[in-house]
Amino acid sequence: MDFKNKIIWITGASSGIGKGLAKELSKNDCKLILSSRRQESLEAVKSECQQPESIAILPFDLGDYENLKPIAEKAIQLFGKIDILINNGGISQRSLVIDTNISVDKRLMEVNYLGTVGLSKALSCFRQF
């Protein structure tokens, strides 16, 4: 795929796969929007990328899935549109099912599922995606 002149929004960009994607995609002639909950971590990733002047930081929490429309609007305002949304953000859980309180499972669903769906729906409201 040719990423030249594309505006790419990556959630979960502060570490792991999202960070790796940001670093690799920054080698292309594209603009990136990096998102996660942690502004400082996003700034650190941006500093490791090529062409940092083509990278915007937009911190937010996917767990706030009912209020993502203003976040999507801010993202669009950064570069005028979004060509590609990479829904990479999420949280994990590391314990046995029997040892995990149902409230943890609920939080996982809120962030990993509802947050991703909510952001995709919020962005699609602007009919430019």
From TrEMBL:
InterPro entries: NAD(P)-bd_dom_sf, SDR_fam, SDR_family_member_7. Gene3D superfamilies: NAD(P)-binding Rossmann-like Domain. Pfam families: adh_short. It comes from the Bacteria. Transmembrane segments: none annotated. This is SDR family NAD(P)-dependent oxidoreductase.
